[in-house]
Amino acid sequence: MNAFVQATRRLRADHAPGLWIGAIRQVFGEGEIVQAERIERYPPHYLVAVWQPLAEGAPVLPRWPEVAAIASPDPQAALVQLMRHVPVDGRLWLAHETIDWVLVADIVRLTDRNLAPYHHVELERFIADRRREDEAHIRTSYTDRDEGFEAMKRQLLEPKAPG
Question: What's the domain of life for this entry (predicted)?
Fold first, then answer.
């Protein structure tokens, strides 16, 4: 049986106690880079991250994964890579939100000694793009304006009519 089929059999659709938690995200698509007058083509790459099962009463995924890695050339290879970091008898749930992909990319970028120069370029681009997305989200979703405070401030600071 091939590794991908074996990996899919260890996945669970819903989170449950005792499950390992994993995440996969495409970090960059196929591309090419010119080095020493030759063109090097590379396939899409995927970030993978793995967390140990959550402790009883700890419903929040820790920020720092147990493992962060990069895989190519397709999502199937990424799943196989991810499962290499889960015990053979372990089952895994793929998380879809709350993953700090900038952190995962930074871990890979700073620790994987086998990265080629194009990996660094693409990972740095991915990190910069996510940071811009976060900044745009913050600017549109958050404010320091509190209407209750503003009303109190107007009441206290506006000049009173002489009377």
Answer: Bacteria
